[in-house]
Amino acid sequence: MIIGMISCFLLVFLWSDTTYIFNRNRSLALLILTFFLALLDCTSMVTFSHYLTRFRPEFISALFLGESLTMVIPSVLAMMQGNGQLTCVPSSNNDTTIAIYKTARFSVSVYFLCIFFILVASFIAFVLLQWTKIAQNSTQDATKKPLLSETNSENTMNIMIDSDNPIKLTPLLYILLLSGSAFTSSIIFGMVLSISAYVLMPYGHQIFYLGTILSPWMFSLVWLFGTIKPFITKRYLLLMIILGSITFSFELILAFKSPCPPLVNTMQGNILILFIWLSTILLLGYPRLVIANYVRAHSSNGMFWFGANVQFGALIGSIVAYLLVETFSLFKEQLPCEKIQC
């Protein structure tokens, strides 16, 4: 966390610096510091997921609340900054339009400084949890209370989520749940963000802007659902993953058809694509939270492997997206204000 804080603080001053290397100026400082900042992002999910096992199981939702805030707060800052807002101005020959981006309300340095303060707040919270008595009544051994009571026609069970009576999953089911966390993460963190421009931009820059701004708020809804109902039956868990996979498959088809997907330049298409885009995050994000609760209750090191599988899934999804977008160039992007006859 300290490495990430230092990297973010240095970005405040060095994000625009370039270094002449390999016969051209390159943003070497930006690349190096972003790498260390990404290193914090990747490793914190694994380490902090396991760290939360010392607290009561219901505090798992705090992990997902923090995850949602790391997306919501930067998106709010981006809206305040005016990032991505533009106007389409006719060119001199009047045959095309040119995208003119609005001047940002505050600089990139101020943006990185705000992110730095968020990391400082996270570091202070960790110090308080680790070395003060603030959380002493919230540890695993402080209290033991029922968290799950599940009843269905096939079997009836009352499960106490504590160290003396944990949930018992078969080895196969345990592996399948962890694989589910990797699969959902590969789509949410690896694929969806990578193809957003090809899915949303054909429906207009405003739809693209709304989709990217509203997406982080869906993770807050996931946290809210997880707080209200931390467990669902495995049947419904599988159903939600299947539905989320279907909506993502539809997005993938739209990306392949870019820049002329179905219902383009229609209000129905705009509403439909936003609904599908946001539904994918909800349908795959909530099962990921439920899986975390299951593996946390099953094994003392379940959250470690959950975090590891989340990062593994994100890696696989990113590699697949990179191959589709950069290596094989299977998608065609529509530029802002570009008029294409479909």
UniProtKB/TrEMBL annotation:
GO MF entry, a single one: riboflavin transmembrane transporter activity
Keywords: Cell membrane, Membrane, Transmembrane, Transmembrane helix, Transport
GO cellular component: plasma membrane
InterPro entries to which the protein is assigned, alphabetical: Riboflavin_transptr
Major subcellular location class: membrane
Reactions accelerated catalytically: riboflavin(in) = riboflavin(out)
Transmembrane regions: 28-52, 59-80, 110-129, 172-201, 207-225, 237-256, 271-291, 303-325
Keyword Membrane: yes
Compartment(s) of residence: Cell membrane
Signal peptide positions (record): none
Origin superkingdom: Eukaryota
Membrane-topology descriptor: Multi-pass membrane protein
UniProt similarity note: Belongs to the riboflavin transporter family.
Function: Plasma membrane transporter mediating the uptake by cells of the water soluble vitamin B2/riboflavin that plays a key role in biochemical oxidation-reduction reactions of the carbohydrate, lipid, and amino acid metabolism.
UniProt-recorded name of the protein: Riboflavin transporter
